[in-house]
Amino acid sequence: MQKKNKYTILVVAVIQIIAISLFTSCTVNTPSTFCHATGDATNPYEEITVDDATAKEHLNHPNDIYPVPIGGCPTSPLVIENDKITICHATGSTTNPYNEIEISAKGLNGHADHENDLIPAPEAGCPESLVIGMEGKITICHATGSTKNPYNEITVSVNGLNGHDKHSNDIIPAPEGGCN
Ligand SMILES: [Zn+2]
Ligand SMILES: [Zn+2]
């Protein structure tokens, strides 16, 4: 008898856990943080936290992305095609640190919580070595075009790279030994 009671309690507990997780996954959450597209190329996104009513307005903005990624809003404007953006997803592998993937600009398919993802992917492709961000910043070698001094070592924002995502000759991240 004692055994049977314990079993019943366990079954009830399991059913409760399943019920709670089903309920949670069925709840539709209106996003509360947005990268609101400003239309200004030098400062393309404003990071905002809004209530439900205001969120509904931002859901209608085609260039807004949500939620705000953990590394902050991109510092360069994203190319959104059919609501999709291209990012570098951090794999956790040292030999192949990033996967270049397409995700939804609306919701980010859960990648907003991935601390090491790069949003967007640089135009020259995802880095071949892992970018270690210091509070959302990384050091890169910016190609100057000069033969005498080909690179400037600079620190930029991980997401958007302050527009250097468009520079195909930049080295991202800067090698350990420095740029030159
Ligand atoms: Zn990711
Ligand atoms: Zn650059």
Description of the molecule:
This protein has helices spanning 2-26, 52-58; strands spanning 33-37, 45-49, 84-90, 98-104, 137-143, 151-157. By secondary structure, it is of the alpha+beta class. The chain has one domain (33-166). It has a two-stranded antiparallel ribbon with strand order 1-2. A two-stranded antiparallel ribbon has the order 3-4. The longest helix is centred in the first third of the chain and has 25 residues, at 2-26. The radius of gyration is 22 Å and the shape is globular. The mean pLDDT is 88. The site of one zinc ion has 4 residues, from loops.
Short précis:
This protein has helices at residues 2-26, 52-58; strands at 33-37, 45-49, 84-90, 98-104, 137-143, 151-157.
Quote the distance from N terminus to C terminus: 78 Å
H and E string: HEEHEEEE
Shape label: globular
Low-pLDDT regions: none
Give keywords.
alpha+beta; two-stranded antiparallel sheet; 2 helices; 18% helix; globular; binds zinc ion
Q: SSE layout and pairings?
A:
Blueprint: H1 2-26, E1 33-37, E2 45-49, H2 52-58, E3 84-90, E4 98-104, E5 137-143, E6 151-157
The structure holds zinc ion (2 copies).
One zinc ion binds at residues 89, 111, 114, 117.
